[in-house]
Amino acid sequence: MIAGWAAVWHDVECASYGADLPLWRELAAACGGPVLDVGCGTGRVALDLGARGQEVVGVDADPELVRVLADRARERSLPVTALTADARSLDLDSSHRLAILPMQVAQLLGGASGRASMLAAMRRHLEPAGLLAIALADPFDGVPVDEALPPLPDILEQDGWVLSSTPVGVRPEGESVAIDRHRQAVSPEGEITEEMATIVLDTVSPGELEGEGLAAGFSVREARVVPPTRDYVGSSVVVLEAP
What is the pTM of this model? Predict the structure, then answer.
């Protein structure tokens, strides 16, 4: 059995995604560090920026993911600090020129009230004129619900295990979207373990998030776009500027 299954499945389902990395690199180079990476997970973005000399503070609500990021940063001698914290109640003794919420982090906060708490926390941690960049993904990516097809499975081999995670359903659920995944782990001895996992994302448009940003005291900068890939939907990146 692999220790730290939450981190392993996070790597299976997220680590191979790289379409957004050029944007985070561009923003980090323009703004300077330390960059605040909110919802850092096991370090997909934080380690990439750290390997390019950027100082990064990564925060995530899952202590297991934070531990893995801290271990990886230490093993590679990268300028990355990993902390366990919730984006909605973040209270660090630091200020930043840039804060980022990659992938669907902002859609995992429990709706408008959670996003409002997050925006208030980000404003407290940004320097004047600092930028907050928030990625929003549309699981249907412009395709009608009934015609949405799941992408290919995500696969990872680790310590003799072969792990795969396949999206098998995407469905609207009130003001959210539920994504069902079939997870399968094959041990080195060939034993198979299977489970279903559901990820629920808040439905929020870039325009709605920009309005929430204005209400929180930010100004709105030009939004950016991360194009879709063969395996991943695209995303819009809302960019807000702190007063």
Answer: 0.91
